[in-house]
């Protein structure tokens, strides 16, 4: 009799152990089309959100930058999310929080920073603590990765700059 009751318990417990719990993941990352950045000239830095196999209604992207090397001129709010809750530029930090009534998925540009380098050198932008991408179903934070951007600026707007500029993305 003991054998007959133990087998169903083992099957039930084993079944629970093999359940797959979905892991939702999203990534915030920065991109720029400009491979040649000249001191004093504006260039765009897109804030992109890749939402893998899920839907979200909002995001918060808090971006840091060296204010001695880079100036954020403005935020172009056009992107996938239509409701703006927060947009601020302060010394070395940009905060953007936006939402949407309908859930969003896929890989999307969520805002664009219009920036200008102040001096030659390597300039890194990255995401700060507080950046988040809540799930549309349970509000859990789905943000699992973010990618920084490093731009190499040379020359000046007066002399046309150097042609040896580069852009790289780093995890």
Account of the protein in words:
The chain is mainly beta and about 170 residues long. The protein has one helix at about 1-15; strands at about 25-30, 35-40, 40-65, 70-75, 85-90, 95-115, 120-125, 145-155, 165-170. Strands 1, 2, 3, 4, 5, 6, 7, 8 and 9 form a nine-stranded mixed sheet that branches. Strand 5 (about 85-90) and strand 6 (about 95-115) form a beta hairpin.
Spell the H/E element sequence. Answer: HEEEEEEEEE
Low confidence ranges:
6-22, 159-168
- Count the E strands: 9
Describe the largest sheet: 9 strands, mixed
- Helix proportion of residues, in percent? under 10%
Query: Roughly how many Å apart are the termini?
Result: 58 Å
Q: Report the mean per-residue pLDDT as an integer.
A: 83
Query: What would you report as the Rg, rounded to the nearest angstrom?
Result: 22 Å
Beta-strand percent range? over 45%
The general outline is elongated
- Class per helix and strand makeup: mainly beta
> How many helical stretches?
1
């Amino acid at each position: 009799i003991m054998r007959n009751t133990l087998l169903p318990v083992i099957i039930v417990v084993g079944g629970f152990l093999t359940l797959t719990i979905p892991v939702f993941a999203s990534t915030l990352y920065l991109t720029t089309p400009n491979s040649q950045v000249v001191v004093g000239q504006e260039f765009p830095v897109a804030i992109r959100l890749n939402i893998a196999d899920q839907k979200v209604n909002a995001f918060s992207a808090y971006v840091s930058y060296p204010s001695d090397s880079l100036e954020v001129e403005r935020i172009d709010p056009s992107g996938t999310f239509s409701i703006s809750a927060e947009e601020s530029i302060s010394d070395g930090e940009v905060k953007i929080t936006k939402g949407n009534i309908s859930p969003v998925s896929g890989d999307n540009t969520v805002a664009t920073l219009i920036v200008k380098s102040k001096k030659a050198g390597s300039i890194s932008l990255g995401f700060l603590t507080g950046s988040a991408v809540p799930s549309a179903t349970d509000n859990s934070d789905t943000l699992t990765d973010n990618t920084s951007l490093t731009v190499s600026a040379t020359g000046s707007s007066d002399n046309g700059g150097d042609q040896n500029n580069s852009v790289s993305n780093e995890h």
